[in-house]
Write a structure and sequence with these properties.
The chain is 39% helix and 13% strand. The chain has 453 residues and is α/β, with parallel strands linked by helices. The protein has an eight-stranded parallel β-sheet with strand order 4-3-2-1-13-12-7-5. The mean pLDDT is 97.
Length: 453
């Protein structure tokens, strides 16, 4: 493999993980239940009947995992705070034990020379709030703003970066529109209020973090090209609609203070006033990228993306990937990352703050990431994926994108939502029987890349 590209000395390397996927101990220390606890308890929802009860046991082993990331030479450790650990019922009484836990985690990161980057929401809505309507209910956004203020008050003196909500588009479409994720609703376009309420929660939490003295506030929005299957008008229009729903419906309100044309009318409440909150200034704009999509006019048949089924009733069809795929079935196409970074730069101009790749990584084909006879995990596919995408970031910078950092998903293997433990994303292998950590070949490769900069 050729020498890695050079990045500016100020460029920051990091990793990212989520609480629900790694912590385990889901009812320990006063944590309340979340919609994902409820969803996982429903028979047939999770591959193999897997349970997140232990996951990677970050709750007890955070010092070991933080140490591994410190030894990696990374600058930033992105983690998520579990809303039900802090406010067990979603509103009202604060759980001091939960705040104390994340206090210890952040102290451990600082001691390891890492910059803590808490994400305040990674889809784990407290169950009582979902029972009251969840993200269809404006009150959930208000409660989220209160929760954000509590966490920021405790951690703002040490957290270097903040991400209010992770991938709100995924919650809306897989959680509320299509029923593939918690809370398992299948509301199709009736789910649009969850778009506005999540964006409002984002804006309220930005203001709350800022008021508590926090800085380094951004996003973790998934973005990717949506390429039309052909030049036919129907395919082009379908791809434009898909891109609006997956990209611009989320970034336009944050960066422009306006919805894409025609979409504000579909949103609830005092939209114009809310947009002033939603567009509160940011310090960086975080981009999660995995794969592009190829879109055609609706075929009347169900399709899939990254292993998740899409209804035949949606107004476009996601086509099969071209070329090699990830373990989840997504197309491996690093130029899609370069393209979307340049597209964001051109679309928003001076309104776009510096960019950070807040997630990028891959699973390999299931069953291919176990330690070999030599005790090592040879994940050449991950190394190839990361190498090609890091080179794509360098090309995007050369093409004018102001990218300041790249964070790999994820430091350790974890519970991969409905795929259970069949998909491994980690730089470090986790034996789910013994919880032993084994750095993979990709860990050593990334460690060397960081050291070379």
């Amino acid at each position: 493999m050729e020498n890695p590209p050079a990045f500016p000395s100020s460029f920051e390397w990091g990793v990212g993980a989520s609480g629900f996927q790694t912590e385990g101990s889901l009812q320990a220390g006063g944590r309340g239940r979340s919609v994902w606890d409820d969803f996982c308890a429903e028979p047939g929802r999770i591959a193999g009947g897997d349970t997140p009860a232990t996951a990677a046991d970050f709750y007890h082993r955070y010092a070991e995992d933080v140490g591994l990331v410190g030894d990696l030479g990374a600058d930033v450790y992105r983690f998520s705070v579990a809303w039900p650990r802090i406010v067990p019922t979603g509103s009202g009484e604060i759980n001091k034990a939960g705040l104390d836990f994340y206090d210890r985690v952040v102290d451990e990161m600082c001691a390891a020379g890492l910059k803590p980057a808490p994400t305040l929401y990674h889809w784990d809505t407290p169950s009582p709030l979902e029972e009251a309507g969840g993200w269809m209910n404006r009150d959930t956004a208000l409660r989220f703003g209160e929760y954000a203020a509590v966490v920021a008050e405790r951690l703002a003196d040490r957290a270097a970066y903040w991400i209010p909500l992770n991938e709100p588009v995924v919650l809306t479409f897989l959680g509320y529109a299509l029923g593939q994720f918690a809370p398992g609703k299948a509301m199709m376009f009736d789910s649009l209020p969850t778009v506005h309420h999540q964006l409002l929660a984002h804006g309220l939490s930005v203001q709350a973090i800022r008021a508590a003295g926090g800085s380094g506030i951004g996003t973790a929005n998934p973005h990717a090209p949506n390429w039309p299957a052909s030049d036919a008008t129907a395919d082009v229009e379908a791809a434009e609609l898909s891109s609006t729903l997956n990209n611009w419906l989320w970034s336009d309100p944050i960066l422009r203070g306006a919805y894409p044309e025609g979409w504000a009318d579909a949103m609830p409440g005092p939209v114009e006033d809310d947009l002033k909150v939603i567009s509160s200034p940011l310090d960086f704009y975080g981009v999660n990228y995995y794969s592009p999509s190829r879109i055609s006019a609706p075929t009347g048949e169900a399709s899939a993306i990254n292993g998740y089924e899409l209804s035949a009733d949606i107004p476009f069809t996601v086509l099969e990937p071209e070329g090699p795929t990830t373990g989840l079935g997504g197309e491996i196409n690093p130029d899609g990352l370069r393209e979307i970074l340049v597209t964001l730069t051109e679309r928003y101009g001076d309104a776009l703050p510096p960019l950070v790749i807040t997630e990028n990584g891959t699973s390999q084909q299931p069953g291919t990431e176990e330690p070999g006879d030599d005790g090592k995990v040879h994940d050449d596919g991950r190394i190839s994926y990361l190498d090609s995408h890091i080179r794509a970031v360098r090309r995007a910078i050369d093409d004018g994108a102001d990218v300041r950092g790249y964070w790999v998903w994820s430091p350790t293997d974890n519970f991969e939502w409905t795929h259970g433990y069949t998909q491994r994303f980690g730089l470090v292998h986790v034996d789910y029987e013994t919880l032993k950590r084994t750095p993979k070949d990709s860990y050593a490769w990334f460690q060397q890349l960081i050291a070379s900069q």
